[in-house]
Every structure is written in C-alpha cells, then in structure tokens.
Fold:
Amino acid sequence: MTKRIASRENALYKSLARLAGSSRARRERRAAILDGPHLIAAFRASGGTAETLVASESGCAHAEIRALFDETPARARAVLADRLFDSLAQVATPTGILAVVTVPGPESVPAALETCLLLEGIQDPGNLGSVLRTAAAAGVRQVFLAPGCVFAWSPKVLRAGQGAHFGLSIREGAPLAVLAEGFAGQVVATDPHADASVFDLDLTGPVAWVLGSEGRGVSTALAALATARARIPMPGSAESLNVAAAAAICLFEQVRQRAPRAPPN
Structure:
C-alpha cells in the first residue's frame, strides 16, 4: 500500500528527514539514500529490495519515475507533497524519486581473494566514487576500505559511483594488513618514488592494488607488506595524481596486459 504524506509531523517523513540530514544517522542505521532514477534503476537491476521508496507528487506525473516507483521492489512506498520531498533531496534539483536501502554490513575476510583494491585513508567522496566506478568498469569486483575512509555509501560517493556499488563487493573497516599478508598473488603499492614503473610490472596474474590517501599516500606499515612498489610516470609538471586517476591507470594497464593478443601475421 502506498502512503500519501503531506504533513511534516508524519512519523515516516520524520524518519526520512533524519536520514537525509545526518551522515551519522545513516552510518548508525547502515542505510543509504539513492537519489534519482539512474541509481534506483541500477539498484533494481542488481536484484535489491529497497526499505522505503519515495516519490514526489510531481515526480509521479512522469512516466519514467512512475514506472520505477511501481516496479522497484520495496518494503514500503510513499508519495510526498513536493515541498516535503524537496526537503529530503540530496541534489540541487530534486529528481522526483529516492530510495532508502540497507548497506551491506561487515563481513568476515573471504577465503579466496581475486584481483582487488585495498584502499587506505581516502577521504574525498568524489574520488572514492570514481575509484569504485573504475573498478567496476575494469572487472575488479572486490574492494576493501580501511577504517578511516569516507563512508562508501554517502550520497556524494553514490553519485560519483553512478551505480557501480551494486556490481561490487565493498567491505568497510577491513583489515588491510591481514588481507595483504594472505594474498596469493602480487601485492602492489603505488609509490611516486618507486624505481619500477607500473608499466614495467607483469600484471597478468592476481593483484591486490594498495592505494592510499590523497595527501599522505600508502602508510609505511602497509607499504612494507607489498611485494612490489610502482610509480606512475609523470613527465609533466604536476607533482601527483589524485587516487581516482591513479586507480584508473593501474587497473586499465592490467586490463591491457590481460587482453588476448592477435597472433603475428
């Protein structure tokens, strides 16, 4: 049954407003807000069920919004007066539809690791979202974030990820040292002072890519567990790349090396 809400005193609206206005509340409830048809369509395609699906009255007048609202699995649905919906929106121009979804909880360290990302100290939500989008595009499914990274399911990370979250296995608060020590393939840490270039490495096997914060890079303790350190050649005047650009270069160099090669003529 769809609820129609026009009062700020409504209990469901108050609950939604708390989540929309507080990152702490979202973390405590392990909840994320998906704002807009693109994110909700990606979530629906992944087979997920929303906790609450919300549309504005004017949003329901648009065929795309109405179809998503009617067809996306949800435990509760509500249509809000436009002024109430606009107060919840996570973007400057309200999209007409949003969903509250449950964020995956902490999981034990998996027994088998594939090529993966080990991320430490990343604070910029746009950078993290771009890293996740790059990982999904490169076919890297496992992403591990150390304690202290930005919340992977914050609105800004979700927008930058463009739906990549729903094709990845994302574990927050992960013990990166344990994962690095137990990894069966190469553990490669990015280091601007390394002798080897990332283009010099053999990346055809499994790789755990260790990427650090935008300012400090990979910590000394974690870098010590790497089996290889690699720099990205930068012949220009820039001192460094942001972590999103570095991840893209590393992962797609691995994609290039793994691609089937045409036999010589």
